């Protein structure tokens, strides 16, 4: 049996509630449901994370995430959507098959943003910007 739960879902050997499927990707309801309709979109081929997926394949996953977002807004009347991706254990990735979380939002407080710390100044970003250019 394939050790990757998402590969098993794509293959149809692991139960999941699939809500979208195309040649490149599969979208299914997340078993943990951060909010009602929380969906994961994965590539059909096993890719570990952002370092292991080609831009074109990632674009196909994002295209499916957009389609799923429209469906969640329309059918669940979600006024907002968050997209979330984590690459690597340090970034809280727990299943090592590339995936995008599509999380419908119903109120501004139904989730707490992890990046809600104090805002810095633009000047404080100059050295970092230079390092990344």
From TrEMBL:
PANTHER family hit by this protein: ADENOSINE 5'-MONOPHOSPHORAMIDASE HNT1, HIT FAMILY PROTEIN 1
GO term, biological process aspect, one: nucleotide metabolic process
Record organism: Thermomonospora umbrina
Residue numbers annotated as active site: 99 (tele-amp-histidine intermediate)
GO MF assignments: catalytic activity
Domain HIT: 5-113
Protein name, UniProt field: Histidine triad (HIT) family protein
Residues of the signal peptide: none
Motif stretch (Histidine triad motif): 97-101
Coiled coil region boundaries: none
Transmembrane segments: none
InterPro entries linked to this entry: Histidine_triad_CS, Histidine_triad_HIT, HIT-like, HIT-like_sf
């Amino acid at each position: 049996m394939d050790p990757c739960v998402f590969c098993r879902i794509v293959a149809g050997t692991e139960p999941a509630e699939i809500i979208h499927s195309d040649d490149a990707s599969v979208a299914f309801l997340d078993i943990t449901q951060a909010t009602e309709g929380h969906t994961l979109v994965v590539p059909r081929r096993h890719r570990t994370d952002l370092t292991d997926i080609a831009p074109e394949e990632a674009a196909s996953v994002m295209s499916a995430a957009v389609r799923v977002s429209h469906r969640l807004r329309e059918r669940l009347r979600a006024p907002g959507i968050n997209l979330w991706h984590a690459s690597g254990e340090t970034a809280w990735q727990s299943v090592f098959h590339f995936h995008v979380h599509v999380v419908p939002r119903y109120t501004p407080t139904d989730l707490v943003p992890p990046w809600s710390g104090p805002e810095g100044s633009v000047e404080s970003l100059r050295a970092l910007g230079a390092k990344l250019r």
